[in-house]
Structures are given as structure tokens and as C-alpha cells.
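User: Can you fold this complex?
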Amino acid sequence: MPHHCELCHIDLDRISVRRGGQMLLQDVSMHIHCGQLTVLIGQNGAGKTTLIRALLGQIPHTGVIRHVDGRGLDIPHLRTGYVPQHLQFDREMPLTVRDYMAASMTKRPVWTGVGKKTRAAVDAALEAVEAGDIADRPLGRCSGGELQRVLLALALNPAPDLLVLDEPVSGIDRNGLKLFLETLLDLRRTHHMAILLVSHDLRFVREYADHVILLEKSVLAQGHPEEVFASEEFRTVFGTGEEEEAES
Amino acid sequence: MDGIYSIMGAILPLEAYEFNFMKNALLAVLLLTPMLGLLGTMAVNHQMAFFSDALGHSALTGIGLGIILGLRNDLLAMLVFGIVWAILICLIKQSGSASTDTIISVFSSTSIAAGLLILARGGKFAKYSSLLIGDILAVTPQDLLYLLLALVGVVTLWVVIYNMLLLTSVDPFLARSRGIRTRLIEGVFVVMVAVAVMLSIRWVGVMLINALLILPAAAGRNLARTSRQHAAFSVGIAMLSGIVGLTASYYLDTSAGASIVIASALIYAISLAVRKARG
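Assistant: Here's the predicted assembly.
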């Protein structure tokens, strides 16, 4: 059973998404608790990205998403921070990491420059994700791992109630990924933030996740990692050679 | 205007600028180049060079339709048609069709053909041929006022929407997740480009207007590292090539619009060399 803490959680109740007569998600219900790392697993096309888009309010869906405090009362606003799988952009664009961060953190247009206060805010945001040294690098010259950190720093400013991450499948080496995930675990501890991560690295999931949700158009299984990994549904989706197969 | 003319006479001790039509032309250049230079940075970053080219061509259809509808004011007809046309293209682009460039090309050639069809009826196109190459020496003080208002409007909106437009051009999905209404922002931007292009087209010409929008921004991109440098280089290069081109055209007796574009093309070539040298 999922651990129900006394604190806030995000409550998804029977979320369904249809597109062109096709059911992409059917009656997906789950709790995402703050201070916990909830990991979404499933095959390609299982609806993981669709669920994230519904959660971010970017595609129409049925069902209810509530943000609830420890006493079960609604918190009116849900602030989400989102880290996409990758950033597809024109790498030749004259744009530094600082410009990009400043554009989303301040109203002053960055073509007029970046003010002192914003410079400091950007530095602080990048240092918080251990990327303080890349502020003045062109965005297009950042490695996959560095971009991921920049995106994380953006998602954390302003501080969200729910941090949603689509884990990169490619473009980041194993060390970069480990460092990134360790930063996440730190955040969970220090900010007591609700984190929803789409992951393809089952070894990591087993080791670090607090709560695992196995998705295949609807929720097939959810609970403690060991419970989910031992379930019949998990074997059906991932087969017996679980870890190696899903990690590719 | 007399005050401005005498100030210009004092700081420009060139024979070319003894005439008021040249002073007007220079003022027009100083108003429209920064406007196009600023907008160009995002047209280039947004990969819209083809779009703005097609937009320029639509001016012909705008004027043609104005004549059919009996509008006396060419500028109004161009503005209205250009804005409608820009929004239409923007909607097609946002619909996520994979073949956006094909669709733009279809629209572009159709609008040239439709424009020529109307304007060249009974062999009368000669009357409109100045539209193709522009005539900056015919600028009047009233035209200058329009350009000034447009420049003020563009700079003001540029302050308001720039950050949102920048985030949108890097990743629209991520921008939306941060509460930016990306479609609206893109819509405002294409309307700004449409207005700037339509206001400048009589002076620079249908065939050259896109070069003034794209070349300085493309050259600036080769030299700049930051957003601020991009804006500064783009505006600076646009103004420099405007002044150099206009002045040269007087002494060489060449088309002003073409001379300005050649000047910015030369600067672009230099910027490319600088970029290569930097590695």
C-alpha cells in the first residue's frame, strides 16, 4: 500500500484522455505525495507522456486533478515545475544559459541585458543544481547533462508544489544521469517536494523510488517498488529479463 | 521639419544631404532599419525567413485587392491584407503540419500571381513597378511620422513580449508549461512583422524587404553570443548598411534599396569570415 503521509498530496481521480476516437489513457487514478519520489514506468506508448501533458493542463482530459493538504482540504493552486526529456532547439542561437534563465525569471527583456539582481538569482538557481559554472555558456554549447540541469533549475524557479520530470533516454552518459538523480533525491529531502519522474532505468527505480506506478493506458499496478516489481502485471509488461530489457 | 533639416545639414557636410529628399530618405532609413533589425533577430531565431519573404510578396495582392474594392489608400489595403495573411500562415504553422514550407510556398506564389493578375490588367503594371524595387527618395514628412509611430510601437511591444517570445522559440511546449500563451505571443509577433514590412515596402520594395529584415540579424547572429549582443549587432548593422547604402547610391547613381541590401550583404560576408576565424 502507498504510504499516506499527513502532508499534502496531488490527487488524480479517473483521468482519461481520448484523441481521434482512440483511448490514450483510461481511468488513471493515483496519489502523488510530497516528500516522495513517485516513479512512472511502462513501455513506449503506454501513455506516460500523455499523462504528464494532462497533468500540466496542456491537453484536454476528463477526471479530476486536486491538490489536497494534510486535512483533505483543497489547495486552490497547483504550481508545477516541468523538466522535459530533451530540448530541441536551434543550437546556433545567440543565447547564453543566463539569458534563457533570466527570460523566464524576470520581466525585463533580456535584449536590454540582465540586471544585477537577476544575475545573482540565476547564479543561485544554477548553483542549487550544481551547475554554477555554466551561466555564461551559450545554451547550444551545453552537453545533454548540463542542459538537463539548466532545465531543472528553471523548473525549480519559482519553487513548485509538484516537480514533473521526463527522464532523458539518450544524450546523457550514465555518470551524468546518476548526478542528476542524486540532485533530485536531495531536493526530495530538503524541499519536501512532490516529485513525479518518468523513468526507464528500472535498477534506479528499485533502489530509490518511494512509490512506483506501472502504466499501460491505465494503472496496472502501483505501490512500493518491491511489490510492483514482484507483480504478475510487471512480468507481463517487462518480461522476465526485466532490468536489462527495459534499460536499453 | 525645418529644424530637423538644419540640424542634419550641420552634422552631415556631404553634398548628398544638401537636398531635402535625401534628408527625408536618411530619416526614413534611420527609422525603418532599427525596427527591421530588432524584429529580424527573432525572425531568424524562429526560422521564419521564408515566412517573411512570402509576407512581402503578399503586398502585391493587398494593393490589388484594394483597387478591386475601390480603396484609395494603398497602405491601408496592404496593412489589412498583410495582417490577415500573416495570421493565416501563423495558424497553419501552429497546426503542426509537417509541410509548412510547402504551404507557405503555395501561398507565396499564389499571392504574387493574384497581385500581378490585378495590377497588370490592360498592361498597366508600369504604374506599380516602383513597388517591386521601392523608392525611398519619395518619402514625405507624413510617411516619416508613420514610420516613427511604427518604430515606437515595435520597441514598446518588443519590451513586453520579447522574453516570452524567446522562451517560445527555444521550446514552445516548455514555454506553455510555464504559463506562456505561446500561440498568442507568436500571433502578436507575426502581426508586428507584417506591419513593419508593409510600412517599409514602398521604400525598400517587395523584392528587397526581406533582405533588410533577415541579413542584419543573420550577420548579428554570426557575431553575437548573448541576446543583448544579437539585438545590438543586428540594429547596428541594419543602420550602418542603411546609411552607407543610401549615401553610396547618391554618388553611384544606383537604386537606394539595392545599395542598402548590398551593403548589408557585404557585412554579412565579413561576419561569416569573423565567425570562421573564431572557430
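The radius of gyration of chain B is 19 Å. Residues 165 and 184 of chain B are 10 Å apart (CA to CA).
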